[in-house]
## 1
Amino acid sequence: MAFVHLHNHSDFSILDGASRVPDMVSKAVEFGMPALALTDHGYLFGIPDFDLACRKYNEALKDFGQWCHDVECFEKGWDLEEPPTDDPNAGEHDRVHAQWASDVQIWNQTHNIEAVKANKPSPLIKPIFGCEAYFILDDCIEKGTKQVRYHLILLAKNETGYVNLMKMMSEAGSKDMFYYKPRTTLEMLKRYHEGIICTSACVSGIIPRMLFEGRPEEAERWAKIYQDIFGDDFYLEIQDHGLSDPSWGGYTDRTLAERIVKMGHDLGIKVVATNDNHYLTKEDASVQDIASCIGSGARVDDENRKRMTGSEFYLKSEQEMRQIFSWCPEAIENTIEVANKCNYELDWTHMYLPKFPDLAEGETSEERFRKECELGLARRYGDDWQNVVINEINVKDRFEYEYDIICKKGFADYFLIVQEYVRWAKENGIGVGPGRGSAAGAIVAYAMDITSFDPLENGLMFERFLSPQRSEMPDIDMDFDDERRLEVVEHVRQIYGSERVSHVITYSTIKAKQAINDACRVLGYPVYMGQRLSKMIPGDPNAHLKFVLHKAQEGQKGADQYSADFEDAYENDPDARRIIDAALSIEGLHRGEGVHACAVLIAPTPVNDHVPTKVDTKGGVEITQYEGHSVADMGLLKMDFLGLRTLTVISRAIKNVKDNYGIDIDVDNIPFTDPEIYRLLREGRTAGVFQVESAGMTATIKGMRPTEYKHIVALIALYRPGPLNAGMVTSYINRMNGREEVKDYDPRLHDILEETYGTMVYQEQVMQISMKMSGFTAGESDKVRKAVAKKKIKLMQEVVQHWDDGTDETMEAHWKNGAVRNGFDRSVAESIWDDVLEFASYAFNKSHSAGYAILVMQTAWIKAHYPHEFMAAVLTSYMGKTDKIVHYVSACRHEGIKILPPDINESGKDFTATKEGIRFGFAGIRGVGAGVGEAIMLERQKGGPFANIHDFVDRVDASQAKRNVVEALIKAGAFDSTGYTRMQMMSFVDKNNPQNIIDAATKRQKDKAVGQFSMFDMFAEVEGSGFSDSVPEPDGVEWDRRFKLTKEYEVLGIYVSDHPLRPYEYALAKSR
């Protein structure tokens, strides 16, 4: 006897389902169910997580079997005490004991042994991938028509069915078909039916709806249509939640089910029993209700809102389902028939790398890869590159090593693909970063101009990026000019085909503070109550309410998130308790979906051959239905095209220098030995300089007093919460400046730690020590790095692993024993190991740090030599963000750079660098904007400088020079240089002035456009025109100082021409 739930909604049915996928699987396991279907609304969002949750349980169950076997071994005669030394089974005892410890640890990490033993779980749980589609009739296809959507359950039987399900749901969610919901048509069902099981769904299916409308013949007709399409893979679906509704035409759940069963008997269609599961347990009905209210914007006490009636929409046990449908046992048994038909799980082992398209005839990717690398190596190191040795590493040997690993893994195309779009970006003047992440450790990336700094000179490791033991796809993330990033993405789309390139989805979840505020609103409490409670939650964006509410033990996860005020409110305020309980229940549920900021998927065939897609309803671009980590883990090529503002600033600054001085700056070849770079940093003139402009970083860098590039690399790695709190930054600076003795573990390790003064700053140093001292292979050293970085201390100290030298021991033992085997004192190995455990989790990726340190050097160099041009670029990059403009204007003034007010004859669209200072741009004036700025500049270029405001409104198109625009220009001081006061000019444009020049100019331009304007009318005295032979002379009457500055601040967000406190400057200075 068994039963399988075939109709289930997780929280991927966003703000409708309230069951988390792993919890659903655990509950099905608890009930001993052999399979479970996931059928979220309209999309396949949750499929990867669902597959992994089932896979995790199944793998843990196998471990549990091994655990039971090992326990049985002990029960046969071995105990936990050491056996006698003459016992022939002593070695086997040690092996089994070690394996038993490892198995128990793994099992405990993945499941509750006692709970599983008590429930006698099924051998495996099978995932069934499905969807509850929104089915429409042909007369609803055209957008704008009245939409009647029916529900329909679709389940994948096999790989063909899964692919067809992906394609159908991709089309349903496409730009053409999406209209409020992803929509499926009859034609699509016919086209994609192969390999799919279909059931008639809930009371929102077309068959129940026809019965409700008193149209039983139509209901049967649709049953036959589905039967014709799906054959024996179509099942009628019955549910019973004990409900009835006035709109059901007199039916109840029970009588509807009975009528459907009769239809099935009459038509020869089998019936399956389901529950429309939206939450996990009966008690969770309120959780779903709150989530639904969040989605609809309603409150729980709204009487007329849409809601799920009752509390029966939970994942019931087999016994409960058999009891409900005791009158129709075959409907229960048929769920097993359906489950037995469904046999497909995701394949996480293959890689789907697109082929590089631009190969010569007969040329392989590997041959082209070698050709590009060798050309690049000759360019980087000279024609004799094969004999070049850097830091005791031969360039040719390193290249051949990397080339061999990359080609054996089939990644030659990967590098060619990245090289092509990086090269295209550079050729088209788009700023590209010097390199980020571990890819900078690859000499092939340097040779192919993907990265721009030498991994050998910087002591970077290829194995940090890719090693023989690693099975994942390489990961080369690239930084591009923030404003032109999408041009690169569009280029990739053109190269590989739009159907093979897609943006990637991202899901938002309900975080702690959001949960409080959502619960407060939904429960009908005043906004201030939610604000008061949420302010008690620590600023950590990853804070969890359970840790905020209940204090964890010191050193345990979440211990730093506890709030005594929050707990006090919960214990003593019933309303606060109600809000917090509701918030706890919804925290972590999915709340929305959007487009990942930088991830792009490139597939070898249409994307929806591999993952389902949909249209982003906000931006209109195509996105995957699976998250970035899922598509990458499934072997698809996910590239991150990151937009970096700093690259935009660098590009603009270079252009500013070219415009002002005619000099072309090559930032890739600036001298890192230039003392002006380090002088600027030591003096704290860091505003706008990449990564080092925060107050804390500026103070640190002033204390450090760097003199070399390597100091900046270390600073980027060290200035993070972990190292700061551990005192590593202070120690590094003291050692660097001779105030603290440099610790040297062993002379043979000196070269590894010398550049960081004996401090383990980089992950690569941990790897290098493990290799040089303990004999780890490069791949094994990467294991150490991962374990250290993720603070898997128990894994390092307790879990036995098989090592390449044939030993079976823990990582700690292998570290220490390997060191002894290589002639190091055990005490040295132990000392370093202790430091690794204490500090190495703070170690940083040197490749990433080195790449970002280059941007520090580049921005500092430009600022040191061309401060006006650099800061103009910084200010322009923040155009429209008043708080940032205020900050950088203040920084400019502090550094002695004048900020000049906007000027109608001098300003550009953006902030402009001049010899005198930085001129405010038109786009920075509220109410003006970039388009108006372009029009002003175009007219100025065509007709020369503007003589006065009359000349301006007469020449600039009236559609651009509207009254509010001209008023904003006046208030900003843009016309001050023409000799008129702002007060007088405002009178010229005042709409209450019958002779205002705005209306007059508009009329004259209209007349001119229809041929009623003569060149002799120019400035002719026409009554009511606002123009005359002689423009009024300046009267010198101005607003009072405070009013003038108030109006200036109104449009600029800052005071430029003066400051209200200027008259009190002396008194204020004296009072200090």
## 2
Amino acid sequence: MKWAALLLALLAPLALAGGTPPRQYQDPTLSRDRIAFAYAGMIWTVPRAGGAAQRLVQAQGRCSHPAFSPDGAWLAFTSVVDGNADVYVVPAAGGEPRRLTYHPGPDLVAGWTPDSRKVLFHSLRATPRDLERLFTIPVTGGHPEALPLPSGSEGSYQADGSHLAYVPHSQWQPAWKRYRGGQTTPIWIADLADSSITRVPRTNSNDRNPMWIGGKVYFLSDREGAVTLFAYDPQAGTVARVLDNPGGFDIVSASAGPGAIVYHQFGALKLLDLATGQARTVPVEISADLPETRPRLARIEPGQILHAFPSPSGKRVLVEARGEILSVPAEKGDVRNLTSSPGVADRDPAWSPDGKWVAWFSDEGGEYALRLRAPDGLGPVRTVKLGQPASFFYGPRWSPDSRKLAYTDKRMNLWVLDLEKTEPVKVDADLFDAPGCHLDPAWSPDSRWLAYTRQLPNHLHAIFVYGLEDRKPVQITDGRSDAFSPRFDRNGKHLHFLAGTGTGLGAGWLDMTSMGRAITSSAYVAVLRKDLPSPLAPESDEEGAAKEEKPEAKDKKAAGPEPVRIDFDGLDQRILALPVPRANYVALETGAEGVVFLLEAKVALADEDYVEAERGFPVSVHRFDFKTRKAEPFLPAVDAPETTNGGTLTFIPTADGSKVLYASQSKWFLVGADKAPKPGEGALRTDLQVFVDPPREWRQMFDEVWRIERDFLYDPAFHGVDLARAKALYEPFLEGLGSREELNGLFREMTGHLCLGHTFVNGGALPRQDRAPVGLLGADYEVDGNRYRFKRILQGENWNPRLQSPLTQPGVNVREGEYLLAVNGRDVTAAQEVHQAFLGAAGRQTVLTVGPKADGTGARQVTVVPVDSEGALRLRTWMEDNRRLVDRLTGGRVAYVFIPDTFAGGFANFNRYYFSQVDKQAAILDERFNHGGSIADFIVDQLKKTPAMVNVSREGRDVVEPAQALFGPKVMLINQMSGSGGDALPWLFRRAGVGPLVGTRTWGGLVGIGGYPSLLDGGSVTAPRWGLFGVGTGWDVENIGVAPDVEVEMDPALVRQGREPQLERAVKLVLEMLEKQPPQTFPHPPIPAHADTLPKP
């Protein structure tokens, strides 16, 4: 935590020649006379001396990773075209780029072979998880050839091509300053003849960007503080610093060329003369139109509508999109922009019940405040400041009299604001910062009471009612049920809510123990006054005179709602269950008088259900009517509401109860509330546009990122970082931005100073592209002559929709060793990359010509449906290879269980593969590449079970209790790509004393993220809001990782021989443990024989 404070104290702004703003000259590369770099999504060149930059490549897509060939004739680069990142080459003097790779995974240029005949690139195309491999592909095109190394993400050849200096793995957060967890990057030097390696000396530093120059390997490292340039002498075995960088910005990337190294020191382009050892800034002038900076009209896609709210009678709908509040007509009229504020975040609109006002939160002025305006958009905007400290505010809820608003903030407070007094009053505060907890206020019809949900110390929720007159909250549910979603009915006589008594372990939202539990709830109604009858009293049809409404009753309706009285004494005995089945209800809303809507989500019980649940089940809606006392289906599929931080409602009745607004598959519909609508009925128009000014948006998002870090980070001291100074330090970089992706790069660099895992930056309004998905067959290829041959066909589970292998479908029967001769009648040869033939084929019927001979003899045609990703197939193949190896090495005595994460996938895999092997004598738990999710208490609880009892019977085998348990020795495999929940699992495994850990140190990112405001253009940034320390051990994982008991690297030489060093060592260890702890047996003790108790004759 001290590193960040130290770094920011030393940083000083770069000296910028001629007032030029600092720019991100990404991945510079050097030829004999020119420098090329990526900027604004294009490739530019400039003379070594500097000057006016010229565009060399302005392709259809975003360009990056330029690399001059050693002979200076070519420039290779990566470009995102058709939604996919591939390798291209272009003549260095200019010309038409040529695409070399077509695989649907990203292919990123890393360099060249010394003879300039092949491009070196790294890709995930042939790996089961997130360890890339290095490939070469001829500059003329053809089949990419994998280097004989199990992994690699950067590389540089020795001049004779015999050795490669490379980085064996990538990082999830390359900008994490002074990172010292398991993903610190070494540089290895591989002898390509046998894949043996020499390690560049280091002490857990981040070394990267190797450049082989003469007899030395130059590289970037943070071993002495800020990232700078070092050199390794293989003959002497020593490392020396080449450039001083005391307290400067990190050097982000570098590349060697004739006599020099060009490098990007964040915000500046520099050149190091190797002969003199002198470095200088290269002045760069860029005067060109940058497409991504142009102000323009932008279309609003359905998924960009973050909040919506109907007018009182449903004639219009307010939507929040791209930071604007739009009023959209249900049928007639035009779309009205009520804010017209490019570069301002206007959020969470709500229409007053009297129809006179629209309220929303806006950051215009630097911090969020409440704004109000007439719905025609013509009157002035009224601003109401919401006090200090500043915060994010959520979910404005109007009182029925349109005079007050209830809302919540990030600090878990519930507030009421009287618009005449303009002084917010705090109602209550929640107890735990847990997902799904948002207080959820609801007004009584007379605007004098506020019902809401709040957590209790037992982690369950209770319903509270707050009186605005006495300002006292009263808990009305007993706290032994999980109660939520309170709503008053329209006459103020009843309060409806949901509650369940079976939540139990399901309340532990961070624990895997909460998964797979059938948590259901019921719908209830509380009768608020003692003198009111039950709304569910027995009914009997009887004749009688028609009742006529009295004149005074009509007068009361005109005068407004009757004052609501709540008799709290005995209220618990006036709570009744509605006659509806228990279900997994997630929300309740009230409509017209006597109508209640219930939103039900699917209960995820089976493993495959839980995998689906990760993607978000839609919810169904039921309409309960007190007149019929029945619930009828209303809507089959509504988007699941988001409940964190004020929530995103997806089903909203109008103020008069006549209509409901709902979202389905991110599209919005406004329909009548009296009966189930027809499919597609009431769809809102989708031709929405707003004016955007990207530089103004980028400045707003820059401020927003710092607000998010300020308000959400779990450490109020920000790991020692002075946020104000950090913000001021990086603000000048805004002027030099040329693209939205560069803004993301700026966010990553500046948040990296928090020295903290899970500070992720993603998305945003990147240039749109129509995708042409490349189809995959689930196969590896090799070249024989000029033809492609199937080297390996991946076996899936064709009964499982997520694991279907195209070539193994019934009737296809393509075999390994056969040739791929044509695709849809077009000849396929090794002169092209094989995936070029499958451009646009994913998910479509495709005719293959295959056969046993390269010349086509005996060929046949088969129809397949290629998939768009082989990831699941390759992962299953890897798992099965490992399981078979363990079976072979142990004679079938040891179970192998892979745990891919600690959420849906890990829950499913563990349940399927562990419990099906409890008949084994021991187990190897493989959590390498575990991407986390939750805290894996469920898994460790199962692993640490010990025998307690034996169940005997006359027939059959004895059953040891607990029955579904494996009591023998256990070993866990870990590696640097295990993180977050994948850090916690081995930590818990060791703490519980289950067994030893084998492999390499884990990532070291044990904090939690979730529930942040979306950035203005749909991008996202995280600020870890949950930090975890060990009881009795402290902060012993974050930025450290979990170290193995037995360290084993994936030695490239052994892997080349077909070995699996980590798994083999785990097998050896577990067999040694079995020798010392053989399987237990439980001989029967004598069954008690009692004296004869029969009566004597």
## 3
Amino acid sequence: MWKLSALLLVASASAVVLPAHREAPELTGQALIDYVNSAQKLWTAGHQVIPKEKITKKLMDVKYLVPHKDEDIVATEVADAIPDSFDARDKWSNCVSINNIRDQSDCGSCWAFAAAEAISDRTCIASNGAVNTLLSSQDLLSCCVGVLSCGNGCEGGYPIQAWKWWVKHGLVTGGSYESQFGCKPYSIAPCGQTVNGVTWPKCPEDTEPTPKCVEACTSNNTYPTGYLQDKHFGATAYGVGKKVEQIQTEILAHGPVEVAFTVYEDFYQYKTGVYVHTAGKSLGGHAVKILGWGVDNGTPYWLVANSWNVNWGEKGYFRIIRGLNECGIEHSAVAGLPDLDLYCKNDIAKPVLITDQLQRTERVANADEQRFYFIAPGGKIKLNTNDERVQFGFSLYWQQYTDAQPVQLNVSLSDIQPTVLERNGMKPALVKADTKVSATILFPVYNYLIQNLRTLIFFDGDSWNSTSLGTGLQLLQGNTQFVSSGSYMTVLPLESSFGQIVFQDYEHTKDIASFQGLKCTLYSRCEDLKLDAGGGPAAFQLYTQDIFSVANILKGIEGTGKLDVYIGGVTVNKTNLISSYSTESKNLPQEFLGTFKTLILTNGTASILMSEFSKSFEETVSLPRKGFIASMEYGSRSTSQDSHSVVTSGIIAKFSISIRDADLSGYATLDMNGYKNNTLVFARSQAPHFTSFSTTMWKLVTLLFLTLLSTVTPTDFLQQRLQTELLINQVNSAQQLWTAGHQDAPKERIMKYLMKAEHVKPHREEDVAQVDVADAIPDHYDVRDHFSQCISVNNIRDQSHCGSCWAVAAAEAISDRTCIASNGVVNTLLSAEDILTCCIGEYYCGDGCEGGYPIQAWKYWVKNGLVTGGSYESQFGCKPYSIAPCGQTVNGVTWPKCPNSDADTPKCVDHCTSNSSYPIPYEKDKHYGATAYAVSRKVDQIQSEILKNGPVEVGFTVYADFYQYKSGVYVHVAGPELGGHAVKLLGWGVDNGTPYWLAANSWNTNWGENGYFRILRGVNECGIESQVVAGIPDLERHN
């Protein structure tokens, strides 16, 4: 009931004072303030002391406003009694952080600020005030960086990843720039305003650069505690449910939460009251802390702390309408719980000393003996020795300079006899046949995510002590089968995997077993499994988190009594704990992308890419001399030094690791010592990973993945090319549905093709028309074959460096439908330029070259009509496209390089603009629509609509791998979300059992399959089936 009353309140205020302003989204400045204050009475807008330009520097890109993954959301039991009003400042007034308003200055660090604020509150609350301090936003901002990690520092970040970073790496103390409180206070000064009598200098023109990560205290004041000893850790990090009562319950139980939402221009002008978006365009994303709720004159609200200093809003706070997911604020709440035990151990744990070859020692306070074990598929191994010092010899071997030479790593440990203490839960599956067992890969239609099959090891026998046949990835890449010598085969899942394995009786050629799936993850144990010949057709299927490798990782070998290690693999003389390469192995990996990734560059700048499950980290490290080797851990920084031939030092969480005196033609050694109470404490792996040799606090991998010759000068282009190579390799190795490759057009151009995420959204119910499903829908259909007489059907356009896809796709489909409905009588190309430039006002389409709403383009056609117009090159019709292609060669014509900025939206003119003499006046050239509507997301309804009336326009989300598409049936495999896009859907089919949609892109004919692409059908891939629009032409109204 209160939702209805709130909406009525807004609506009635608007109706009484001022009718809806057609151009409200475009209002700025005083006009916007006047409109907001006249249109509603919930809140008041006014001029701000902070300059408007500064606000946009505080915001994030909308790409950081992403829904939670299902696995991140923790179900909250709703409290029995939720009060009408609640304010954390009253409940926990003893906590110094609760009332603290910070100032992020001109840096888009809101994601780090809101996290540090809420984490500080929750640490105080959980400890009953025993840990009452301010935790550092600087520590998060500067050190949690990288794609799919926290983000990009001052350009924005993912709130949930900030909380996960707190769990893994901890946060030191740190307050505001003015206070210099704690170990790591904020390093960016306020600007452009006067606060508490202090006038700060004018803000700089550009956004502040992200501060560098340093693992030391940086306060101007003397701080008594060391950086590592000052860490405060989290126990858990999670997303909160979207329901209001779930968010309220979470705050009641544990304290404030962090939320992210879309900021519009009117929010900047907020002074007081309960905010609801009223006017102005979207400016970006923002993250804040919710600390309570209440009701104001019948309007429910959230109480929120901003990070724009106390001059803004209600002394730094604001209220926003509750229960309507206003600006998306209720769909992105994140939270976590502190680990007070881990924090308390800092004061009492005995130190561990890590000494490098130069006898430099680092004291590590937080060492827990039980954490330091090797964990392998065979069990947990504790390394015992009577010696206080144990030497580890790491040998590096480099064959020659080529583009992708592996480094062979062998580690020998003396005076250590490993013993198996316990099984670690990764249990083998036993497969039995009448004669011999064969294993092969099965490719079902929808099983397109075949990844990480390296985590399956096949053994020739009835136990995992048997001879290793190889891994699932070898089975996949070799396009072969494994055959046992007897009637048993054992399969050991180390983690969990995508992919479907079919077991057959090799000689009787019949399928074995009735087991349909096995699920085991890092946090749950795999169940025992026995398969025998008594069942019918079956598959052995495993599911994984997002880990990926493109090399044959394992090769079974026998140990010799010492512990031999290669990228985390260990073998001993009794048991294959992890099968790994020996030093004599010829089959070395060429590339990895998994728990850990290191790139080595022989001169200049190296781009470091690492991933851990669904997280990854990207960093650039400057290496001043030829031959330097970079070694880093996910979520931390590395400092490069110049000494002797090769020096890198990775200061990683708790341990200091160095590689010294390496000659690329010889060997490098690393001596490390770690002990506690005369017992070695050295390594623990969180799970059996083949690509890491790790502890919970550090990871070391010294593998060569790519070598660039010293004659190459590193540039930004080189770094981007390096990332592109990794993405292409990842896509092509992970699946066989489609092929990725290099594109002629520069990668930067794709960002200019795309729309904002806000333009790709579900339809309103009133816009969706129900389509009568056709009696017979063919398996394959292509509009080009059925209406080949229509010149528009085969036409591929080029939107150039303008996000006009919404207009181009609409013009293409409307042209087709007009020709089809008129039986070819009206056979022309209608103008994308007319929609792009003139769709404003009542049927406001959006933001021109920054994106638009497809459904509005079709409604504009119904109301205002469209004139004819073809491509820039053709100058066809009344209003051809006015933005020239750029950055590529098409049909023998080389177009100039694309400019650095997006194209400006051309101005709307009501006359023909073709360079050619077009005989028909603008008003007489109009072609109109009769209806415009959205189509249901059901596959058969979309197909029926195309069969009956012609192509439709669809919107979908674009990821980085889509740009690299060359051919095949696309499905998103890897890479971050880039934005929204609209295209024309003109058919469907089936390719080797995989159903697809056929779509026409607007990136010219050099891209994809001569300008077209195919995308998986039936699973709403990237949202393509939930945003379909169409319409019917009005042939009688044609002038």
